[in-house]
Amino acid sequence: MQPSTFEETRPADYLIRLAASGLGKAYKGLATLEMAIRPGDVVLDLGCGPGTDLPAFAEAAGSSGLVIGVDSDPDAVRQAQERTAGLHQVEVREGDIQALSIPAASVDRVHTDRVLQHVPDPAAALTEARRVLRHGGMAVFAEPDWDTLVIDHPDLATARAYTRYITDHVVRNAALGRQLPRLAAAAGFHVVRVAPITAVFRDVQEADQVLALKRVTSRAVAAGYFTQDAADGWLDHLATQPFFASTTLFIITATVQFGG
After folding, report:
1. Which tens digits make up the pLDDT trace of 132-179?
2. Quick one: what percent of the chain has pLDDT higher than 90?
3. How many domains, the chain?
4. Helix H or strand E encompassing 61
5. Going by DSSP bridges, is the β-strand pair 90-94/107-113 parallel, antiparallel, or unpaired?
6. Which residues are CB-contacts of 196 (< 8 A; sequence separation ≥ 6)?
7. Taking Cα atoms as reference points, which of 216, 259, 260 lies closest to residue 238?
8. Strand 245-255 and strand 190-201: pairing?
9. 194-207 residue pLDDT tens
10. What's the domain range around 34?
11. Which of 135, 64, 127 lies closest to 98 in space, CA to CA?
């Protein structure tokens, strides 16, 4: 196994790099199309991170629109503000997406991208999204289901243990992708469409940029999900043999109906 095959630490620009990847561009482009943003719309990006989606939303909303990004991380807010400094219709705020300081029925479009998988209470965030949307408004939620992660390896038990460790310990709401239609309906949305986006990786280094293979494996060993010997064999196989992995993200499009 080459030492440089796997990243040792998470890069500071992880979210920016993912957004610029082929995978990121593909599913983000679909999510933006699903939002059907119109000139003059008020668009709310919950958990906007470094603001990678905000310029596309601003372009769609036009000079008469308003795009609001909200994130709880002050550093992400700063990056998003710098990224959109030349866009007068974009505002970026620090805040909790589970308790928004935004008036009810004041927003036309709401968006999340791999954010609800991490929040303590996804149902509360969905309820807030529903509260701030106008009747006739639309929300698009893009969230993964980590139970769908499969990685090819001769020992299925090891591969399954790796996925199980992720769903048990790495991601707070690991199965949120499949749960979102139900949770959105419970929050008062009308779910109109669910689109699965399956990412397929044939290059181990490309996959490592998303899956953090070595770092997660080390944590799985410490947690007792497999032995160090099994982990060494697992990583060596991934680095030296033909690679295959896939995982599915779901894009849920939901509306607030008149009279709803």
Report:
1. 999 999 999 999 999 999 999 999 999 999 999 999 999 999 999 999
2. 86
3. 1
4. helix 54-61
5. unpaired
6. 248, 249, 250
7. 216
8. antiparallel
9. 999 999 999 999 89
10. 10-146+172-198+248-255
11. 127
pTM of the model: 0.91
8, two tokens: 């040792």
Q: Are 77 and 93 in contact (CB under 8 A)?
A: yes
Three-state SS at 239: helix
> Which three-class secondary structure state does DSSP give residue 51?
coil
DSSP state of 141: E
Mean pLDDT in residue range 6-28: 71
Q: What is the CATH number of the domain that holds 117?
A: 3.40.50.150
Q: How far is Cα of residue 145 from the mean position of the Cα atoms in its chain?
A: 10
Take residue 174 and report the two structure tokens written for it.
């690991």
pLDDT band at 1 (very low <50, low <70, confident <90, very high): very low
Tokens of 92: 């970026």
Cα 72 to Cα 89: distance, rounded to the nearest angstrom: 21
The pLDDT of residue 218 is above 60: yes
At residue 159, φ and ψ (nearest 5 deg) are -60, -40
Is residue 120 a part of any domain in this protein?
A: yes
